[in-house]
Amino acid sequence: MDILVCIKRVPDTAENEISVNSSGSDIERDDLVYSVNEWDNYAVEEAIQIRDKVGGSVTVVAVGDSESEDVLRREMAMGADKGILLSDDAFEGSDGKGL
């Protein structure tokens, strides 16, 4: 069975002190530490366990800039077989619903 898991790079709230920017429209992003969404991490782990039982492969997919490669590499280190980064200027500023 070939399994595809979508993951997202998010600010690590345990590692960061989150503050609102001066305009009040967003959070300050300059010094944030990022990691994969915790629930996405669980999904990858479950996919790996299923693959180990029935065979196949696990592919993780992320949308983002080149910094999102780090989360793909971490998930591949966990045991995912492949990682795909979707990166395009058209995606900038969009959210998951917009894709």
**In one word, what is the shape?**
elongated
- Sheet/helix structural class: alpha/beta
Q: Measured on Cα atoms, how large is the radius of gyration? A: 15 Å
User: What is the domain total for the residues?
Assistant: 1
How would you name the CATH homologous superfamily? HUPs
> What is the makeup of the main sheet?
3 strands, parallel
Kindly report how far apart the N and C termini lie. Answer: 25 Å
CATH architecture: 3-Layer(aba) Sandwich
In N-to-C order, the SSE pattern is EEEHEHE
CATH first level: Alpha Beta
* Spans where pLDDT lies below 50 across 5 or more residues: none
Largest beta sheet: strand ordering: 1-4-5
Helix content: 25-40%
Give the secondary structure arrangement, pairings included:
Blueprint: E1 2-7, E2 9-11, E3 34-36, H1 38-54, E4 57-63, H2 69-78, E5 82-86
Parallel strand pairs: 1-4, 4-5
Antiparallel strand pairs: 2-3
Description of the structure:
27% of the residues lie in helices and 24% in strands. The longest helix is centred in the middle third of the chain and has 17 residues, at 38-54. Helix 2 (69-78) links the parallel strand 4 and strand 5. It is of the alpha/beta class and 99 residues long.
